Amino acid sequence: MDESNARKLIIEVGKLLYERSYVVSSDGNVSIRLDENRVLATPTMTCKGRMTEDCLAITDLDGNALNDKKASSELAMHTLIYKMRPDIKAVCHAHPPHGTAFAVAGLAIDAPILSEVILTLGCVPLTDYGTPSTNELTDAMKPFVEHHNALLMANHGAVAYGADLWQAFDRLETLEHTAKISILSRALGGANDLPKDAISKLINIREKAGYLPAQARCQACGYLDEAGITCEHDAVSDSAFQIPFSGGGEITFTREELIELLSQVANNRN
Ligand SMILES: [Zn+2]
């Protein structure tokens, strides 16, 4: 993307993030992939509502500075996503209050309560807690980046990404709106899930229309299990379960194998 337009866009989205209270103080960070090896990113310790076009940092995909500005300390979250997802050109990280409340409560946003959210965003998994600005955070995100376009990070916040910055921002906004509606419906006595057949129809529509690929049917989608929709990606090695043995060595099971084994054990007990 043209650098001058990218600068304008980041300032505009930064203001929106701040005005909508998705960030306060110097929270959050935004970036755009300018070309194969250059990222334009928000600077460290700067309020996203008060940035200027000349304050933005440029780095390579390993986070090394390519101009005299210091990028956000959480840039590794962005570069991880760019490396794992060639289709992604922009990343938006913030602490929107309702979405972050889910992350603090240890909850994913994965209940099948809103048809449009199933169509356009899919479920938002919760990744394990990792200390910000360290490998812990990016390691916790890795298993989920490929199959999702937005993630919650435990006791921290949310990150959303897309083919351009508006799509990344829209996904973050949908995440926050869904979390808000979910909390409000719980206060009114509880949310009603969509029925299984309605979920199947929505998944079919979203894949036919190209809103989300089949990869979005993933290990973390609670409602796919509930609707009996299988996910071929469950068996991939990065979601395999490794069980270490005290005698040395370890055995790796896929999710299906582990479930089968555990149900055999349970049946033997009965
Ligand atoms: Zn953060």
Write a brief structural summary.
This protein is α+β, with helices and mostly antiparallel strands and 270 residues long. It has 9 helices and 9 strands. 40% of the residues lie in helices and 14% in strands.
If you had to describe this structure to a student in words, what would you say it looks like?
The chain is an alpha+beta fold. It is built from nine helices and nine strands. The strands form two sheets. The chain has a seven-stranded mixed beta sheet with strand order 3-2-1-4-7-6-5, sandwiched between helices. The radius of gyration is 20 Å and the shape is globular. 39% of the residues are buried. The model is unreliable at 234-250 (pLDDT under 50). Bound molecules: zinc ion (ZN). Zinc ion binds at residues 27, 74, 93, 95, 132, 156-157.
Structural class assignment:
alpha+beta
Q: Helical content, roughly?
A: 40-55%
> Main sheet: which strands, in order across?
3-2-1-4-7-6-5
Percent of residues in beta strands? 5-15%
Helices and strands, in order, run as HEEEHEHHEHEEHHHEEH
The count of β-strands is 9
User: Average pLDDT across residues?
Assistant: 86
Task: Give me some keywords for this one.
single chain, 270 residues, alpha+beta, seven-stranded mixed beta sheet, two-stranded antiparallel sheet, 40% helix, 14% strand, globular, binds zinc ion
